[in-house]
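for the recovery benchmark. tokens below, seq after
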């Protein structure tokens, strides 16, 4: 029996995230522990927590899991694992070990589908050099899958979303549009080619991008997931106490993302993300509506947004292109804090 996981869920991948506004309300109730060994915690809304073990070693801890983003169980496992591991790369860390997080309906799926999901996850983890050494399962529908990942980083070499500085250029390492394309697929608006390209991008580890960051001693980055390019850029601007300008015309889009958005296919998550960021964002007058909404499109397993001094941006970009990240682009820049944290132009 051929299983179609998309038939089991409305909002797959990172678009299933709770709205950023609601999340901030909830997190107010989370007490922040005071411990000098905690190097990064939820305070800056970074990609992962970092805990110092000694002067040479800190642990990077993160977890991500979500409902299916695609029909095929094996591909879903691959994408979920790549997405979970990404937060370690975004912090400049080396992912080492992981646990499976599995919420699987006990009756509605054949056993082979579960086997394929965890095999996809295990294969992607192995590609990243990550050993899966345990996990936890509960009975839940629709299915959800992901990893809790531990990585290593040198305490002096952590990359954070608070590391953007005025005068930096911003580089994005993968094109955006996964939310629009996956929604377009359900409506019959996306071509197979676009869906395949979106899946290829989502499966792609951010490892080679992270290696380039290390080579250039980059200190500021985040990965682009459920809050969209603009939502994560806003979190970076706030944490770094700077303003960020993004030129949406420079932002690479997957395949026919623009056409699909133009046909009216803009998923609800984009509106939730816009609602969260709107008060802190300046839009240039007459900005193209579709480009504006695409800035807020929830991405699943998106690329890294890297902040680097302008004078080395060209070299960083060349290295990313040479590493096979062919759509890496300089999409904006960082200034001192202006009236609003974020400027979107086209
Ligand atoms: Co992240
Ligand atoms: Co995450």
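predicted aa per position
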């Amino acid at each position: 029996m051929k299983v179609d996981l998309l038939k089991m869920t409305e909002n797959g991948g990172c678009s299933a995230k709770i709205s950023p506004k609601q999340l901030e309300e909830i997190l107010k109730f989370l007490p922040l522990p005071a411990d000098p060994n905690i190097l990064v915690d939820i305070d800056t809304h970074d990609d992962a927590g970092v805990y110092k073990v000694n002067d040479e070693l800190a642990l990077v801890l993160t977890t991500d899991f979500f409902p299916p983003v695609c029909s095929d169980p094996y591909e879903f496992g691959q994408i979920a694992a790549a997405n979970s591991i990404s937060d370690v790369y975004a912090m400049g860390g080396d992912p080492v070990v992981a646990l499976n997080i599995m919420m699987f309906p006990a009756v509605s799926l054949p056993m082979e589908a579960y086997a394929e999901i965890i095999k996809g996850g295990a294969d992607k983890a192995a590609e990243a050099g990550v050993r899966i050494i345990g996990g936890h399962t509960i009975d839940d529908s629709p299915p959800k899958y992901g990893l809790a990942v531990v990585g290593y980083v040198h305490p002096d070499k952590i990359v954070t979303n608070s590391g953007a500085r005025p005068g930096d250029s911003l580089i994005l390492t993968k094109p955006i549009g996964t939310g629009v394309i996956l929604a377009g697929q359900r409506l019959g608006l996306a071509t197979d080619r676009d869906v395949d390209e979106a899946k290829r991008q989502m499966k792609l580890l951010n490892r080679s991008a992270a290696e380039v960051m290390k080579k250039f001693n980059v200190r500021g980055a985040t990965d682009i997931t459920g809050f969209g390019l603009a939502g994560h850029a806003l979190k970076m601007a706030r944490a770094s106490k700077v303003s960020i300008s993004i030129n949406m015309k420079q932002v690479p889009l997957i395949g026919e993302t623009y056409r699909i958005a133009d046909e009216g296919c803009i998923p609800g998550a984009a509106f939730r993300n816009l609602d969260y960021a709107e008060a802190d964002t300046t839009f240039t007058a007459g900005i193209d509506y579709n480009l504006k909404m695409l800035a807020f499109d929830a991405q699943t397993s998106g690329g890294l947004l890297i902040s680097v001094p302008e004078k080395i941006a060209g070299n960083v970009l060349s290295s990313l292109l040479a590493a096979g990240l062919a759509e890496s682009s300089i999409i904006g820049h960082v200034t001192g804090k202006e009236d609003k944290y974020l400027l979107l132009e086209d």
